[in-house]
Amino acid sequence: MREQRHAEIAGAGTAGLIAATLLARAGWSVRVHERADVIREIGAGIFLHNNGLLVLEETGLMDELAPRGTRLMRDRMVDWRGRAMQTRILESSVTRRWSFPRQALVDVLHMAARRAGAEIITSSTIDLASPDGLLVDVSGREWRADLVVGADGYRSAVRSSLGLTLVEQRLPTTSIRFLLQGRPRLRSVFELLHRSEPYKAYYSRVDSRSWSSGRAALLGDAAHALAPTLGQGSNLAMSNARSLVTYLEQTESVIDALIAWERAVRPTTDATQRWAGYYDRLTKHWPNALSPARARVIWAFGALPVLAASQHASGQAGGDRRPQWHRRPRVSPGRERRPGRRGAVQAP
Asked: Is 315 exposed, middle or buried (0-12, 13-18, 19+ CB in 10 A)?
């Protein structure tokens, strides 16, 4: 019988909390470090797509979360003249989408992690990590584990200390968001916006040399922050966390499991990040003088089979295929080959 293994996680956002929940349910002892004094999420609303929804349903958390959100049935993009550039029907099991307040998602994940037995420490700021399974906080205290996880966001101290940062770039993209209750009619929307407090969001892109080093792994924005245009940040975090726990459950060696996990899921994540970047540049940074041409290009994204299929496959992160955590891992114990950029396997 395998002895109980222990995990230390830096960051109590979506990635860290879902990883804590899944690891604890799989029999691990888990401790989560959050630098803030309370567990909270910054931002307004969040879209959850099929790949994230599958994880919440499998863990039984969707029933708890659903009453706090809204299922969306159609997505329509219009230009400044009100002309439709792209319309998507969201009624199928693959294209489905829900909208929630960000804090609602974090609240549900927080309580799930605690119920599963995870310990969550607030006001605990992690300063660095090492490949032998160690987190060190800003006071110098050491926290040893069989697995350490950096789920500490795009400015990840874990990633930086492990030397895994390839790109950390603030994007010029910003968004102004309003969180409105219910489904108001169009005329009343503008009245509500006038009375509502806006939230201005900033975004970054992160590319990592690898998602792991020894017994230390990166998860969520710490590994692959991306433009917001496909709404996949939290969805990828949850689906990749679920895949990670599956590989850890089915592989004796933590190091081998981390290598096999990245090899399996990184190509899809990289493709999603790449398409989010394309769409971001197209929708946010197109020259105003060429606006008529932009409308035709955006229409083509939804209408042309090749472009639509590519965007759909990356944006759904495997939504119409078997979820990646249900695939049997292929691991070669003792091998030192590691996934490189864009999922290619390199010799060290």
From this structure: buried
Beta-carbon-side half-sphere exposure of residue 124 (alpha carbons within 13 Å)? 19
Tokens of 56: 């919440």
CA atoms of 9 and 95, how far apart (whole Å): 32
For the stretch 24-52, pLDDT in tens is 999 999 999 999 999 987 767 889 999 99
Separation of alpha carbons 61 and 48, rounded Å: 13
In terms of Cβ atoms closer than 10 Å to its own Cβ (0-12, 13-18, 19+), residue 311 is buried
Domains of the chain: 6-168+204-340 (3.50.50.60)
Residue type, 72: L
> What are the backbone angles phi and psi of residue 10, rounded to the nearest 5°?
-95, 115
Closest CA to 224 of 215, 279, 239: 239
Residue type, 33: H
Q: Kindly report the length of the chain.
A: 348
Q: Helix (H) and strand (E) counts for the chain?
A: 11, 18
Give the other-Cβ count within 10 Å of 162's Cβ: 24
Task: Check if the beta carbon of residue 269 is closer than 8 Å to that of residue 57.
Answer: no
- Residue at token pair 């874990």: 158
Q: Structure pTM?
A: 0.80
